[in-house]
């Protein structure tokens, strides 16, 4: 494990027979002010050199052991905290559902809580992963180290038969996905009230599998503001979502729907469908047998036999 820079005052404090240390955890959400939690039994006001914030003890947190390696693998850990009722006290259930912690950054400090409090060492930093919650009482944010960002944003890419863009319509795909959205409304709810429903609308296409894959975004109702992937679509306008919605779907709900891309060179809802082949980020003519042998992403998904190119065009 690599060494950590420890302040002179911090090193002297750690040499004492009895220390007064705690951990302070700072979270910075995208487009929102930072807030902090502490493992101490009282609030700690701390200036970490970037800003002065009060690290709350009302809900507190319990750190877990960190799994780390020397091979640039992503350090992985968790922390446990009680879910707060108000934003000022910590992580709330509503904020988790809104996705406020998606791509949020964190820094964990070892702090001397004597007056004035000061940072002894920075223990870890990175991005939040999945935030698990149990019965709305406690939550477990996953802590992912900076090496994950290095891997995600590396300029070195593995070859793939399918397109490697991160999202349909992103800066590399360049397709105008906003032109695909059409407004509709829920006219009936199926047996699975959180997955299946029927839609209608002047711009909604009633063609089998037209919106598969696709995306639904609710604009009214209990699921307003949330988006879900479409798993199946029928010519009668029946939509089946890939995962259940947060709240039951209602016949009064309004929504928007659009097609998505399969990331394939040709076929249904492929790069060919959208006329976007100049921006295709993949190697569709690579022989499938070679792709499988090399562990190429998407190499085993072709319907063609071994030794035959995935695309004949």
The whole-angstrom Rg is: 25 Å
**Uncertain spans:** 301-313
Distance between the termini: 51 Å
Structural class by helix and strand composition: mainly beta
Structure description:
With 313 residues, the chain is mainly β. It has two domains: 145 residues; 83 residues, Thrombin, subunit H. Helix content is 9%, strand content 31%. It has a nine-stranded mixed beta sheet. It is globular. The C terminus is likely disordered.
Which descriptors would you attach to this protein?
about 325 residues, mainly beta, Thrombin, subunit H, 2 domains, nine-stranded mixed beta sheet, six-stranded antiparallel beta barrel, 4 helices, 15 strands, about 30% strand, globular, disordered C terminus
Write the layout of secondary structure elements.
Blueprint: H1 8-14, E1 21-28, E2 35-38, E3 44-47, E4 52-56, E5 62-63, E6 76-82, H2 93-98, E7 105-112, E8 118-134, E9 138-145, H3 146-152, E10 182-189, E11 196-200, E12 214-218, E13 227-233, E14 238-241, E15 254-259, H4 288-294
Parallel strand pairs: 2-4
Antiparallel strand pairs: 1-2, 1-7, 3-4, 5-6, 6-9, 7-8, 8-9, 10-11, 10-15, 11-14, 12-13, 12-15, 13-14
């Amino acid at each position: 494990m690599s060494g950590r820079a420890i302040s002179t005052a911090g090193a002297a404090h750690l040499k004492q027979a009895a220390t007064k240390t705690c951990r302070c955890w700072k979270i910075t959400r995208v487009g929102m002010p930072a807030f902090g939690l502490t493992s101490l039994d009282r609030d700690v006001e701390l200036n970490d050199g970037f800003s002065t914030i009060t690290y709350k003890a009302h809900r507190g947190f319990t750190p877990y052991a960190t799994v780390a390696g020397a091979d640039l693998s992503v350090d992985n850990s968790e922390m446990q905290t009680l879910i707060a009722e108000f934003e000022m006290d910590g992580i709330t259930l509503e904020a988790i559902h809104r996705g406020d912690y998606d791509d949020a950054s964190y820094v964990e400090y070892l702090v001397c809580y004597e007056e004035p409090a000061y940072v002894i060492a920075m223990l870890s930093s990175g991005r939040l992963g999945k935030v698990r919650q149990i019965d709305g009482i406690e939550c477990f944010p996953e802590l992912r180290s900076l090496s994950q960002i290095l891997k995600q944003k590396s300029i070195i890419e593995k070859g793939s038969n399918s397109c490697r863009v991160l999202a349909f319509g992103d800066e590399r795909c360049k397709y105008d996905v906003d032109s695909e959205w059409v407004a509709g409304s829920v006219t009936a709810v199926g047996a699975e009230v959180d997955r299946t429903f029927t839609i209608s609308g002047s711009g909604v296409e009633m063609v089998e599998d037209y919106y598969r894959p696709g995306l639904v975004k609710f604009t009214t109702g209990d699921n307003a503001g949330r988006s879900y992937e479409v798993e199946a679509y029928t010519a009668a306008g029946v939509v089946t979502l890939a995962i259940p919605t947060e709240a039951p779907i209602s016949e009064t709900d309004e929504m928007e729907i659009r097609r998505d891309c399969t990331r394939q060179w040709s076929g249904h809802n492929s790069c060919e469908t959208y006329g976007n082949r100049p921006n295709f980020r993949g190697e569709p003519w690579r022989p499938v047998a070679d792709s499988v042998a090399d562990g190429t992403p998407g190499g085993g998904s072709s319907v063609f036999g071994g030794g035959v190119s995935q695309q004949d065009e």
